[in-house]
Specification:
single chain; about 130 residues; alpha/beta; 3 helices; 4-stranded mixed beta sheet; VOC_core
């Protein structure tokens, strides 16, 4: 068994697709209409056959509440690995990404957290 798709609740699928592809550099793999919403997945450019990130609409009240509460508490919704966190931090800052935590050493890892503009805090980590 392996993980093939993981989902992330977003307030606006179109805006999320733009942010995750244009700012973060993920590649759109699927974009299929599903009723009033879309099945949108992205993959890492370094692993295009790997795990897909599903941009899931947060239209269900439980999803909306979950997303709002973890954001308000400063809890990242997910984590992405990076090879060089300082380079990635600079690259994303240049693209206008807002960080809530600059790269910070925590034991054997360095982490940083940014706002994805779609209702989530996202953590990047360099191991």
């Amino acid at each position: 068994m392996r993980i093939i798709v993981t989902s992330l609740f977003v307030q606006d699928q179109g805006r999320a697709l733009e942010f995750y592809s244009e700012k973060l550099g993920f590649i759109k793999k699927e974009d299929v209409p599903v009723g009033e919403f879309r099945w949108i997945t992205l993959v890492s450019p370094d692993d295009q056959g790997g795990t897909e990130l599903l941009l899931e609409p947060n239209n269900h009240p439980a999803a909306k509440e979950y997303q709002q509460r973890i954001f308000a508490d400063g809890i990242p919704a997910t984590m992405f690995g990076v090879a060089d966190i300082q380079d990635e931090y600079r690259r994303l800052k240049e693209k206008g990404v807002t960080f809530t935590m600059e790269p910070t050493k925590m034991g054997d890892v360095t982490i940083a957290v940014f706002d994805d503009t779609c209702g989530n805090l996202i953590q990047i980590v360099e191991k």
